[in-house]
Design goal:
single chain, alpha+beta, Maf protein, Dna Ligase, domain 1, 3 domains, four-stranded antiparallel sheet, 14 strands
Length: 285
C-alpha cells in the first residue's frame, strides 16, 4: 500500500528544525539520523511553556494537533529551514476510567512540498497525583509515580495552587519541597503530581520516540498516484459483518490509506472476514 522511498528517499540528508526546551531531540534525532541520515536541529529562543503547561498554570490554546503544528511552524520561522517538527502530548483517563492514557503527536511541516505528515503513538502513562498529609503518603505516591526516575511537582493545598516546584528528581529535593509546601499550606496538605514534561518522564520520552517512528514510516511511503511522501493510514473503517447473521458491526473491516498531497485514497481489507456474534448489535443487542 504505497511505495517505499528506500534509498531514493525525498528526505535523505535533509535538515529538520525542532523547537523544544525539554530535550525531545534525544528521542527524535537518532531516529531521523538512522532513517534518512538527516539532521534534527534543536531550535531555542522561544519559551514553549507559553503555549501551555501540564501543570495548568498556562492553559493550552486550541487542540493538541494545533499546538504541535504551531511548534513546527515556529521552528521553521526561527531556523530558516523549509522543514519543521513539532511534538505535543496529551493525557486523559485510561480505558474504563482506569489509570492515565498518553497520546503523543510528532508533526512534520514540509514547506518545500506544501505537505504535513503526522506521527502518532499512544498507551498507558506513568502518572500519579494525590493530596498528601503525611510522610508515608508522600512515599507511597512517589513509588506509584516511579520516582526518582520520573520527576514530581509539589504545591501547597490544592492542584491549582500557583506556588509550585517542578522538576524534583532526588529524595533530598522532594523532602525540601514537601517541607516548604507544608509550612505554607493553610490546610496542612500538599498536592503532589507527576512532572509530565518530556525530560522529566522517561515513559513519555519513549512514546515520543514511538510517534517519531510512526512519522518516519509515513515519510518513507509515497503515493501511488502523485509520488508524494506521507502516504499512510487515514482511518479504520468499521462494519465487519457478524459471523452468524451478517449484520455490520462496529468491528474494523478495513484500513483506509490517504495521500497528504492529493485526493488519492486506497482501502485494504483485514484478513478477518467476520465478527464474533457477541459484538453484533442484532445477535447481542
Amino acid at each position: 500500500m504505497g511505495e517505499d522511498l528506500e534509498e531514493e528517499s525525498a528526505y535523505r540528508g535533509a535538515a529538520f528544525a525542532l523547537l523544544t526546551q525539554h530535550g525531545k531531540e534525544a528521542a527524535i534525532g537518532p531516529i531521523f539520523a538512522r532513517a534518512f541520515d538527516a539532521a534534527v536541529r534543536r531550535v531555542d529562543g522561544f519559551d514553549t511553556d507559553t503555549l501551555g503547561t501540564f501543570t495548568r498554570d498556562v492553559p493550552r490554546a486550541g487542540s493538541q494537533l494545533e499546538a504541535a503544528r504551531r511548534k513546527a511552524r515556529l521552528a521553521i520561522e526561527l531556523a530558516g529551514l523549509p522543514r519543521g517538527l513539532g511534538s505535543e502530548g496529551s493525557f486523559a483517563p485510561g480505558p474504563f476510567g482506569l489509570g492515565t492514557w498518553n497520546l503523543e503527536l510528532v508533526v512534520l511541516i514540509d514547506d518545500a512540498r506544501g505537505i504535513e505528515i503526522i506521527g502518532r503513538a499512544q498507551g498507558a502513562a506513568t502518572c500519579a497525583h494525590a493530596l498528601v498529609r503525611t510522610r508515608d503518603e508522600l512515599e507511597a505516591l512517589a513509588r506509584r509515580a516511579e520516582f526518582p526516575a520520573h520527576g514530581l511537582v509539589v504545591r501547597p493545598d490544592a492542584s491549582e495552587d500557583p506556588r509550585l516546584r517542578r522538576g524534583l528528581r532526588t529524595w533530598d529535593e522532594l523532602e525540601a519541597a514537601w517541607n516548604e509546601a507544608r509550612s505554607i499550606a493553610a490546610s496542612g496538605a500538599v498536592f503532589v503530581e507527576s512532572d509530565l514534561r518530556a525530560h522529566q518522564s522517561p515513559t513519555r520520552m519513549q512514546r515520543i520516540a514511538a510517534a517519531t517512528e510512526d512519522l518516519v514510516t509515513r515519510m518513507q511511503r509515497r503515493c501511488d498516484a502523485c509520488g508524494a511522501p506521507g502516504f499512510g493510514l487515514d482511518r479504520k473503517e468499521p462494519g465487519l459483518p457478524c459471523r452468524d447473521c451478517g449484520t455490520p458491526t462496529h468491528e474494523i473491516r478495513a484500513h483506509r490509506y490517504a495521500c497528504v498531497a492529493c485526493p488519492h485514497v486506497a482501502s485494504e481489507a483485514l484478513d478477518v472476514r467476520s465478527a464474533d456474534p457477541a459484538r453484533c448489535p442484532h445477535c447481542n443487542p
